[in-house]
Design goal:
Elements lengths: L1 H21 L3 E2 L6 E2 L5 H12 L3 H23 L5 E2 L3 E2 L4 E7 L1 H5 L2 E8 L4 E8 L2 H10 L17 E6 L7 H25 L2
Length: 198
């Protein structure tokens, strides 16, 4: 359990470094010199190698993906016959997720996704359209709802709900239970809203 806590802290530090890097300044840990990233990929490779050098980011990433895989297994057992549960998918290094779909969602060309957002280190529930047109159509329909950003459509979803903002990776059993109970609460609300727009 201590390993997960250390991994979580390390992951957050790496995210801080990554964010600083992309905003134009990265502090080198050893020398504390500021480096302005070049648009040239070769010039960015030393900073990239440095982040991966200890092996901790790889271990942390694998541990976090393992939590999502365990969660997917629990959902597949708990919702057998109610939802089809897809395999765990990986975004670039930003998202790890799996889809859920029932007859209602399939009919409307929608999916729910349980998403681990690596940058924010949190679990989210996304409503997705199977195509960009479906996404835009439902975003337009649902603009007045509490979860929908009326000003800007998300890149990958219709809307995104934070399920667990500060996951405790030291107690994965409790974490998985919390995500499941939050999913039940939010999915019930989502279906009520969707049905109201039919």
């Amino acid at each position: 359990m201590l390993r997960f806590a250390v991994a979580s802290l390390l992951f957050r530090k790496i995210q801080y470094i990554k964010n600083a890097y992309y905003s134009g300044v990265i502090r080198q840990v050893a020398s504390e010199e500021a480096v302005v990233p070049s648009k040239n990929l070769n010039a960015r490779i030393p900073a990239y190698k440095k982040v991966f050098a200890s092996g901790e980011i790889q271990k942390t990433y694998q541990s976090l993906v393992g939590v999502v895989q365990d969660l997917r297994t629990e959902f597949k057992k708990a919702y057998k016959g109610k939802y089809s549960v897809a395999n765990v998918l990986h975004g670039y290094i930003d998202f790890t997720y799996f889809y859920l779909q029932n007859d209602y969602l399939k009919k409307h060309r929608l999916k729910l996704a349980i998403v681990f957002n690596h940058q924010e280190v949190r679990f989210e529930l996304w409503l997705l359209g199977q195509t960009k047109d479906v996404q835009i159509n439902f975003w337009e329909k649902l603009k007045g709802e509490q979860w929908v950003n009326e000003d800007l459509i998300p890149e990958w979803s219709i809307f995104e709900i934070v399920m667990i903002a500060n996951p405790d990776f030291d107690d994965t059993k409790q974490l998985l239970e919390s995500i499941q109970s939050t999913f039940i609460e939010f999915s019930n609300e989502i279906f009520e809203v969707l049905e109201a727009y039919e």
